[in-house]
Amino acid sequence: MSVDLASVSARLESPNARDRLLALVSLRDVPAADAVPLIKKVLKDEHIPLRSMAVFSLGIKQTDECYGLLIDILQNEDDYAIRADAAGALGYLQDPRAFEPLVRAFLEETDWLVRFSAAVSLGNLGNPEAYQVLMTALDAPEVVLQQAAIAALGEIGAIDAVDKILTFARSEDWLVRQRLAEALGKLDTPKSRAALGYLSKDAHPQVSRAAVLSLDGLEAVDVSA
Hints:
This protein has a domain at 161-225: Leucine-rich Repeat Variant. Helix content is 67%, strand content 0%. It has helices spanning 5-11, 17-25, 32-39, 48-60, 66-76, 80-93, 99-108, 112-125, 131-137, 143-155, 162-165, 174-184, 190-199, 205-224. Helix 7 packs antiparallel against helix 8 and helix 9 (131-137) runs antiparallel to helix 10. The chain is elongated.
């Protein structure tokens, strides 16, 4: 089913926020080259949920200008939640140029939500140079930053981080333990496997399941090697 872009463009200028939101949603299956010019119309919309969706869309509908638009939002937007959306979208975009801006965002931002999104996106970029930044995130007082850092260290294959992240095996937060189980499945060491055996007996079902899946994945690699 084709989308009438002229109609969508007109609805994006509607005084009714719901109309604008539905118009933006209708771009879901529209090619990026056609969608991005329309998405740009609501990047500064007064309705925050709409702006948030528009910013996130730039990470999905990828064109050459999306990177620049997202960097501008990350560095110049006043609303911290929108800056966090931009940091997250940069992870989806997976443009290696985003590495330095995301590192700066993590180190310089005062809001935890922006720092969380930056840490997650550094993992998505898969750049091993994020190691030191993510290691500092493990010592953050916010548990969600610890979760993001553990997951990201797994994504970048940071074997050297294993000893440090194993200290979270007895975290009171089950999501931390789950992220640890998932990360260890990407960091194959004898200590990782031993810890996964321990976590496979965790009282929380999502933690134990994650640990079992990680162990199965590591064993599958052994068989195929």
